[in-house]
C-alpha cells in the first residue's frame, strides 16, 4: 500500500542525489542512509510502516526508470569499489581468535566503538544500518515485499562490466571462505574428535579443490555447483558426527566455537555459490540475495552482542553438562518399592553424617577463628562431609532436584509432545516427587535424633552442655521463617545446590574430554606405588565419580563460605539447608532440656519444612530451566501436562508418596 506522505519523501531523496557519481563514497553513504532512515520504523514492531515505505519506494522506481537505474548502480558500485571480503567472508562468521578473545573484543567495542574505515564494505554497511534494532524490522518485513523492491530495481538491465565486477567480488569472497574452511578442517581439535579425517580424504580439503575448479570454469552451471554442495553436506555430516561423539568424548568451548565457525562458513559459501551460478547463467538469485541480506543485517546488529556470543557457543557444553547431570539424576528417581526403600536407607545414612557435620560446625564456631580461617574450616567440613556421603553411597535429598530436572528435560526432549509421552512424563514426576519426599524423610528422621544423641552424649560424658541455652535460642531463631529472612537464605542454598549440579556435570565432561582417567593410568611413578591393577581401578573410579566428587566438594565450599562472603561485602547473605536446620533443631531441643513451648515447636517444624521446600523448588526450577534451554525445548503442552498431573494426583494420590506394588503395570494402565 502506497501512502501519500511517504511517496513524496522517497521522490525527494532520489531527486536530491540523482546525477551524482555512484563512485563518490560520502554521497553514496548519505544517499543510502537517508533511504534506510525513511524505511526504518521508529519502533521495531511497527512493520506496517516499513512495508508501506518500501512499497512507496517501489512505486517511485517503477514510475521513473532513471531513479531505479541510479539506485541499482549505486548499490552494485558500492560492492565493487569497497573491500567486499570484509562483509561476505567475515560478517556473521566467528573470527579465528577464539571464544574468549572474541568475548573480550565485544565487551571492549561496547565500551569504546571501533574506528570506521569506509574502504571496507562491512563498515559502510554498518553506517547505513546503524540502529541496533535494524535486524528486527528487516527480518520481519515479509520476503515478498523485499522481492518487490528487487524487481523494481531491474538488476537484469545492469551493464555487463558492472555485473562482471560484482561477480569477481563475490568469487573472491567464496575463495577466501573455501581456503579458511579447508584450514579449519585440519585443526587438531577437530581431528582429535573425528579420527577418520586422518585416515580418509577430508571433505574440507576436497571442497577447496572443488571450489578452485569452479573458479577456473568459463561457464559455471548449476550442475557444476551441485557437486560442491554434495561435498558441503559431507562437511556438515562430519560436524554433526563430532557433536554426537561429544556425548562419549566430551566437549569444550573451543570445540563448540570451531564447529560454529565451520557451520557459518559452509552456509555462507553455499549462499555465494548459488548467487554466482545465478549471475553466470542469468537466472533469478533474488531469494539467495535476500537471505544473505537478512543474515548480514542480523550479523551487523549483533556484532557486539555479548549474550548472543555466549549462548551461541556454550550451548553444546551446557547440553553435555546437563546430560551428565541427567545420568546422575536417574539414580535419584525410584521406580520400584525395593529402590524406594533403598533410597530411604541411603538418605538415613546421610542424615547420620550430616548430624556430625553440624556438630563439627558448632565446634569450629566456638573456636572464634578469624573470619577467613573460620570460612575455610566450615567449607572443608561441609565439602569433605558431602564427599564422604557420596563415597558411602548415601543420599542428600536436596541434591536431587539439580539432577532429576535434567532427567525430566531429557524425557520431554525424547517425547515429542505426544499424549502417551505426557502420561510417561507424569509418571516420572510422580516418581521424582515420592523419591525426593522419602529422601527428605530419611535425612530428617535420622539427622534430628542423632543430633540429639550427640548433644546428650557430650553433656553426659563431659558434664557440660554441647551448646548453651542462648545458642539454642539463636539456632531456633535462625530457622524461624516468620521473624527472619530464613526462606531467602534457603533460596540461596537452593542456588548453591543448582550450581553444584552444573559443576558436577562440567567435571564429568572434563574427565572425558581431557581423558583424565587414561592420563592418570599412564603415570609411571603412580604405577610403581599402587601397581597397575590398583591404579586402573582408581582411574575407573575417577572417570565415573569425578563430577560427583567435585560437585559435592564445591557445594560444601559454597555453603561454608557464604556467610563469610556476606561479612566481606557487608550484605545479609547466609544459607539455610533443611538437613542442617533439622540437626540444629535437635541440638537446641537437648540444650533446652526439651522445655519448649508449643509455639517454638511449631515454628521450628514449619521452618524446617518450608526451608526444605524452598531448597527444592529453587534448585529444581533453575536446573530444569537450564536443562530445557540447553536442549532448545519450550514444551508448549504445559496445560495438558498439568491437567494430567492433577488427574493422576486425584485418582492415585498414594502414588506420589509410595510406589505401586507393580510399577510396570501402573505405567501400562496409562
Layout of strands and helices, then pairs:
Elements lengths: L5 H12 L7 H15 L7 H17 L1 H17 L3 H6 L8 H13 L9 H8 L5 H7 L2 H11 L6 H25 L3 H6 L2 H4 L3 H13 L6 H28 L3 H29 L4 H16 L4 H24 L7 H30 L4 H21 L8 H16 L3 H44 L6 H10 L7 H28 L2 H6 L2 H7 L1 H38 L8 H14 L6 H33 L7 H14 L11 H7 L1
Q: Could you give the distance between the termini?
A: 55 Å
Q: Proportion of β residues?
A: under 5%
General form: elongated
Q: Helical region count?
A: 30
CATH superfamily of the domain at 320-669: Glycerol uptake facilitator protein
The CATH class of the domain at 320-669, by name, is Mainly Alpha
Low-confidence stretches: 663-670
Sheet with the most strands?
none
Our Rg estimate from Cα atoms comes to 33 Å
Look at the helices and sheets and give the structural class: mainly alpha
How much helix is in the residues?
Answer: over 70%
Please give the number of β-strands: 0
Look at the structure and give the mean pLDDT.
86
CATH architectural designation of the domain at 320-669:
Up-down Bundle
Could you say what the CATH topology of the domain at 320-669 is called? Glycerol uptake facilitator protein
Order of helices and strands: HHHHHHHHHHHHHHHHHHHHHHHHHHHHHH
Amino acid at each position: 500500500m502506497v501512502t501519500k506522505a511517504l511517496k513524496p519523501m522517497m521522490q525527494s531523496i532520489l531527486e536530491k542525489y540523482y546525477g551524482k557519481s555512484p563512485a563518490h563514497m560520502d554521497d553514496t553513504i548519505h544517499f543510502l542512509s537517508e533511504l534506510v532512515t525513511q524505511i526504518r520504523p521508529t519502533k521495531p514492531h511497527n512493520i506496517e510502516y516499513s512495508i508501506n515505505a518500501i512499497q512507496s519506494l517501489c512505486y517511485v522506481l517503477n514510475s521513473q526508470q532513471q531513479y531505479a537505474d541510479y539506485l541499482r548502480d549505486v548499490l552494485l558500485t558500492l560492492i565493487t569499489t569497497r573491500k567486499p571480503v570484509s562483509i561476505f567472508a567475515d560478517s556473521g562468521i566467528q573470527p579465528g581468535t577464539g571464544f574468549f578473545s572474541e568475548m573480550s573484543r565485544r565487551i571492549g567495542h561496547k565500551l569504546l566503538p571501533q574506528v570506521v574505515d569506509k574502504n571496507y564494505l562491512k563498515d559502510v554497511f554498518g553506517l547505513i544500518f546503524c540502529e541496533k534494532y535494524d535486524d528486527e524490522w528487516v527480518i520481519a518485513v515479509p520476503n515478498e515485499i523485499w522481492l518487490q523492491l528487487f524487481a523494481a530495481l531491474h538488476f537484469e538491465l545492469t551493464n555487463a562490466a558492472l555485473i562482471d565486477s560484482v561477480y569477481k567480488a563475490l568469487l573472491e569472497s567464496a575463495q577466501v571462505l573455501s581456503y579458511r574452511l579447508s584450514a579449519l578442517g585440519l585443526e587438531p581439535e577437530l581431528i582429535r574428535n573425528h579420527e577418520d579425517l586422518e585416515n580418509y580424504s577430508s571433505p574440507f580439503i576436497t571442497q577447496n579443490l572443488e571450489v578452485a575448479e569452479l573458479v577456473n570454469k568459463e561457464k559455471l552451471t548449476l550442475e557444476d555447483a551441485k557437486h560442491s554442495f554434495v561435498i558441503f553436506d559431507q562437511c556438515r555430516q562430519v560436524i554433526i558426527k563430532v557433536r554426537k561423539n561429544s556425548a562419549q568424548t566430551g566437549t569444550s568451548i573451543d570445540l563448540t566455537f570451531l564447529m560454529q565457525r565451520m557451520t557459518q562458513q559452509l552456509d555462507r559459501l553455499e549462499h555465494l555459490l548459488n548467487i554466482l551460478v545465478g549471475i553466470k547463467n542469468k537466472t533469478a538469485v533474488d531469494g539467495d540475495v535476500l537471505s544473505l541480506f537478512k543474515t548480514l543485517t542480523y550479523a551487523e546488529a549483533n556484532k557486539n552482542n555479548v549474550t548472543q556470543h555466549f549462548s551461541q557457543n556454550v550451548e553444546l557444553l551446557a547440553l553435555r553438562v546437563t546430560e551428565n547431570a541427567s545420568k546422575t539424576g536417574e539414580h535419584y528417581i525410584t521406580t520400584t518399592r525395593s529402590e524406594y526403600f533403598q533410597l530411604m536407607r541411603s538418605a538415613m545414612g546421610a542424615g547420620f553424617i550430616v548430624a556430625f557435620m553440624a556438630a563439627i560446625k558448632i565446634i569450629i564456631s566456638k573456636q572464634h577463628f578469624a573470619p577467613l580461617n573460620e570460612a575455610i574450616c566450615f567449607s572443608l567440613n561441609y565439602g569433605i562431609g558431602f564427599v564422604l556421603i557420596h563415597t558411602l553411597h548415601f543420599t542428600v535429598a536436596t541434591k536431587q532436584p539439580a539432577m532429576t530436572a535434567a532427567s525430566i528435560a531429557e524425557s520431554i526432549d525424547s517425547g515429542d509432545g505426544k499424549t502417551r509421552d505426557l502420561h510417561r512424563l507424569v509418571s516420572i514426576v510422580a516418581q521424582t516427587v515420592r523419591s525426593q519426599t522419602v529422601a527428605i524423610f530419611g535425612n530428617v528422621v535420622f539427622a534430628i535424633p542423632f543430633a540429639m544423641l550427640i548433644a546428650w552424649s557430650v553433656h553426659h560424658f563431659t558434664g557440660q552442655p554441647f551448646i548453651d541455652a542462648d545458642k539454642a535460642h539463636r539456632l531456633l531463631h535462625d530457622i524461624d521463617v516468620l521473624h527472619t529472612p530464613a526462606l531467602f537464605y534457603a533460596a540461596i542454598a537452593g542456588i548453591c545446590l543448582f550450581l553444584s549440579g552444573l559443576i558436577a556435570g562440567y567435571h564429568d565432561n572434563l574427565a572425558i574430554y581431557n581423558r583424565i582417567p587414561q592420563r592418570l593410568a599412564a603415570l609411571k611413578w603412580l604405577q610403581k606405588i599402587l601397581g597397575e591393577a590398583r591404579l586402573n581401578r582408581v582411574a575407573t573410579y575417577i572417570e565415573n565419580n569425578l563430577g560427583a566428587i567435585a560437585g559435592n566438594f564445591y557445594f560444601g565450599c559454597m555453603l561454608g563460605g557464604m556467610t563469610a562472603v556476606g561479612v566481606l561485602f557487608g550484605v545479609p547473605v547466609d544459607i539455610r539447608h533443611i538437613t542442617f536446620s533439622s540437626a540444629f533443631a535437635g541440638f537446641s531441643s537437648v540444650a533446652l532440656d526439651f522445655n519448649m513451648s508449643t509455639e517454638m515447636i511449631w515454628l521450628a517444624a514449619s521452618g524446617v519444612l518450608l526451608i526444605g521446600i524452598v531448597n527444592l523448588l529453587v534448585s529444581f526450577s533453575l536446573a530444569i530451566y537450564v536443562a530445557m534451554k540447553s536442549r532448545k525445548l519450550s514444551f508448549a503442552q504445559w496445560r495438558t501436562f498439568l491437567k494430567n498431573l492433577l488427574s493422576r494426583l486425584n485418582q492415585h494420590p498414594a502414588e506420589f508418596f509410595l510406589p505401586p506394588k507393580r510399577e510396570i503395570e501402573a505405567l501400562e494402565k496409562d
